[in-house]
Design a protein that fits this description.
Layout lengths: L13 H20 E3 L6 E3 L1 H5 L2 H13 L1 H9 L9 H15 L6 E5 L4 E7 H4 L12 H13 L3 E8 L6 H21 L7 E5 L12 H7 L1 E8 L2 H11 L2
């Protein structure tokens, strides 16, 4: 099952928890404020990322220590959608995203039995071949997606990078990770809480088309943004599990 069909999470083992806390505490101020410039590809300290404040640093720290969706919910300070209206809220966001991205080549779909929204960014629109720098003309469209994520803050956001099967596995893995990170960083620069976002690269592991054809390889080169609404019940469960 691909990550766009089911989110993956891995909690640290108890023996590594203290080490994770110490490491994250030492790096949090730098990591939370560092982003990839979508124009140059260079890492730098972002005032926008730091401006979210100590709460985000603490959120990233806490989410990393707790692990899993529950840790991310607590780390991001998500309030949750009232259970009875979560479907309505997601449908509204889904409709608005389709309207905002119409004619851009972006695909919007419901996944996980209609419990999440998947935004698929095609390679030719988002990046040049073998590049992880966002194309300047695409940034206004990605800004609209960020606007939607800000308007609907009670969700987790997973960014998945995928490649075709050409090139070495190591190269493809690195490229997929850098592309996912570039999109995630852009969303953060646009005001989406970094604590909500997780970026992962999967190289050619999850193709959606035949890599033996040019068309198939083009479809496989993509970045996906998965939006997972969080209910108030999930928030209560996460807080209870964390002892809050």
């Amino acid at each position: 099952m691909s990550p766009s069909e089911k989110s993956r999470s891995a909690a640290p083992t108890p023996g590594k928890a203290r080490l994770a806390v110490a490491t994250l505490a030492a790096l949090s101020l730098t990591t939370a404020g560092c982003v990839t410039d979508p124009n140059t590809g260079h890492r730098h300290v972002s005032r926008a990322a730091i401006g979210v404040g100590v709460g985000v640093v603490g959120g990233i720290l806490l989410g990393g220590v707790l692990g899993g969706a529950g840790g991310r919910i607590i780390g991001a300070g998500i309030g949750g959608v009232v259970g009875g209206s979560i479907g309505y809220t997601m449908d509204k966001q889904y409709k608005e995203l389709r309207e905002k991205t119409e004619g851009t080549g972006i695909a919007i779909a419901k996944v996980d039995d209609n419990k999440a929204i998947l935004v698929s960014l095609p390679d030719g629109v988002t990046f040049d071949i073998d590049s992880y720098m966002l194309r300047p003309e695409f940034q206004s469209t990605l800004s609209k997606i960020a606007e939607s994520l800000r308007a609907y803050p009670n969700s987790l956001v997973d960014v998945y990078g995928h490649t075709d099967s050409t090139g070495t596995p190591m190269h493809n893995q690195t490229l997929s990770e850098y592309r996912a990170r570039a999109v995630a960083d852009f969303l953060s620069i646009q005001g989406v809480s970094p604590a909500r976002i997780r970026a992962q690269g999967f190289a050619a592991t999850y193709p959606v088309a035949d890599n033996a054809t040019l068309e198939g390889r083009a479809r496989n080169r993509r970045v996906e943004i998965k939006i997972v609404p969080v209910s108030d019940e999930q928030v209560r469960a996460a807080r209870a599990a964390s002892g809050q």
